[in-house]
Q: What sequence folds into this?
């Protein structure tokens, strides 16, 4: 008596008719005899994997045996900071993964690190140079040091957005974020005066001006006096214009 397994089954042994075990079966016919060939479903192993390691959870999570022709649904969940990019092995693409167990098989769930954009800005425009200088993508959980260097005539006042206050700015990229560096123009004092006192008037009076502001200064003589010249930030007797790149003083002499 011989037995041949069908696809997906394996022969496990004989019973009856004086046959046992899995070897050859010969029956001596001394009467009616029954021989049974026993079979069992073949089992195959499905081996799951995640790439890169730790990027997500896959179900089933360990190599598992299944009966022949079992349809196994494989699922994945991305860990924070990762996104699923597709299957390889027994499944492909990015859709649902269902594996028919007609042999030993392996399936890998592939992931990529999520990237987020850090958008820098300077207020007012042109008041500083910033690093990074333009919107830039960073991997999830990257710590980005943001710096701002004031342009001539400006002073840093504070951060806004992902950083606040006036200290160092360090941004943890767990989502899209923006940072603004705020500046104000430096102000300088123009001090004006008349010599001798009461001999005339000078305009403007002493006051503060933003860096780089050109200030026109004029002098008018009082009755009985004549203008003789400028001293300080202006000289001579012509028109007086002072560019405020620092504290300045101008005296009108009569």
A:
């Amino acid at each position: 008596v011989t037995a041949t397994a069908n696809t997906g089954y394996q022969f496990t042994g004989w019973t009856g008719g004086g046959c046992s075990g899995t070897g050859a079966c010969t029956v001596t016919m001394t009467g009616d005899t029954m021989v049974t060939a026993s079979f069992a479903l073949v089992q195959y192993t499905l081996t799951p994997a995640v790439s890169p390691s730790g990027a997500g959870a896959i179900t089933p999570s360990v190599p598992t045996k299944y009966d022949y022709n079992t349809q196994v649904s494989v699922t994945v969940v991305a860990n924070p900071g990762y996104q699923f990019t597709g299957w390889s092995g027994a499944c492909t693409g990015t859709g649902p993964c269902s594996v028919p167990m007609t042999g030993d098989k392996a399936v890998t769930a592939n992931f990529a690190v999520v990237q987020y954009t850090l958008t820098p800005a300077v207020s007012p425009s042109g008041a500083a140079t910033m690093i990074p200088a333009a919107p830039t993508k960073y991997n999830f959980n990257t710590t980005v040091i943001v710096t701002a260097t004031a342009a001539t005539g400006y002073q840093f006042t504070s951060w806004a957005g992902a950083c606040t206050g006036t200290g160092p700015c360090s941004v943890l990229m767990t989502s899209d974020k923006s940072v603004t560096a705020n500046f104000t123009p430096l102000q300088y004092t123009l001090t004006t005066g008349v010599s001798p006192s009461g001999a005339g008037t000078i305009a403007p009076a002493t006051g503060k001006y933003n860096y780089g502001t050109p200030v026109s200064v004029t002098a008018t003589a009082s009755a009985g006096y004549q203008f003789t010249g400028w001293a300080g930030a202006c000289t001579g007797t012509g028109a007086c214009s002072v560019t405020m790149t620092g504290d300045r003083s101008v005296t009108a002499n009569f």
Remarks:
- The chain has a mean pLDDT of 97.
- The two ends are 137 Å apart (CA to CA).
- Residues 48 and 198 are 96 Å apart (CA to CA).
- DSSP finds no helices and 23 strands in the chain.
